Amino acid sequence: MARKKKRKERGLNYLVLVPLVGLVFLLVFFNINLLNQRKITREQLSKIKEDYYRASEEKEHLQTEADDGDREEEIERIAREQLLLRKEGEEVIVISREEEDVGEEEEGEENDEEERGFFEKLTDILPWPG
Questions:
Q1: Positive or negative, the Cα torsion across 17, 20, 26, 27?
Q2: 17 to each of 13, 14, 28, 35, 56, how far by Cα in Å?
Q3: Alpha-carbon distance 54 to 60, whole Å?
Q4: Is the per-residue pLDDT at 112 higher than 70?
Q5: Which are the contacts of 86, defined by CB distance < 8 A and separation ≥ 6?
Q6: CA Rg, the chain, in Å?
Q7: Of 16, 39, 35, whose CA–CA distance to 27 is shortest?
Q8: 2 vs 109: CA distance, rounded Å
Q9: Could you tell me if 79 and 85 are in contact, meaning their C-beta atoms sit under 8 angstroms apart?
Q10: CA end-to-end distance (rounded Å), the chain
Q11: Calpha distance 85→97 (Å, rounded)
Q12: Alpha-carbon separation of residue 118 from 12, 124, 129 (angstroms)
């Protein structure tokens, strides 16, 4: 009878041991899969971070170029409009809107000559300083 108990105990040991070993193999298999997926995900994350940093640097670079371009355009506009400067090969055309003022100034000069007296006109003609 002692032998039958030992056989039953061995049988029970195998019944418990086989599922436990199978469970350990499953856990190791799934753990290896998770490690591989983690490794792939980390590589993808590092690539995405590099792309993000590269894109943000490019964005900043383009913004500074755009700002510089806007400033240059503004400087060029002021130089053209206010200082009447031009680039090589261009022709500058000035349109004056003060045509009426010019006519009034000429009339004002004629009136000044009429208002000047005889002695003032004489001092302009004579050679001595006066």
A1: negative
A2: 6, 5, 16, 27, 57
A3: 10
A4: no
A5: 80, 92
A6: 50
A7: 35
A8: 145
A9: yes
A10: 156
A11: 19
A12: 146, 10, 17
Both tokens assigned to 62: 């383009």
Amino acid, res. 26: L
Separation CA 39–CA 46 (nearest Å)? 11
Assigned token pair, 15: 């019944």
DSSP code per residue over 29-86: HHHHHHHHHHHHHHHHHHHHHHHHHHHHHHHHHHHHHHHHHHHHHHHHHHHHHTS---
What the block records as the tokens of 127 is 């050679």
| pLDDT band (50, 70, 90) for residue 46 | very high
pLDDT score, position 87: 78
pLDDT band for 128, please (50, 70, 90 cuts). low
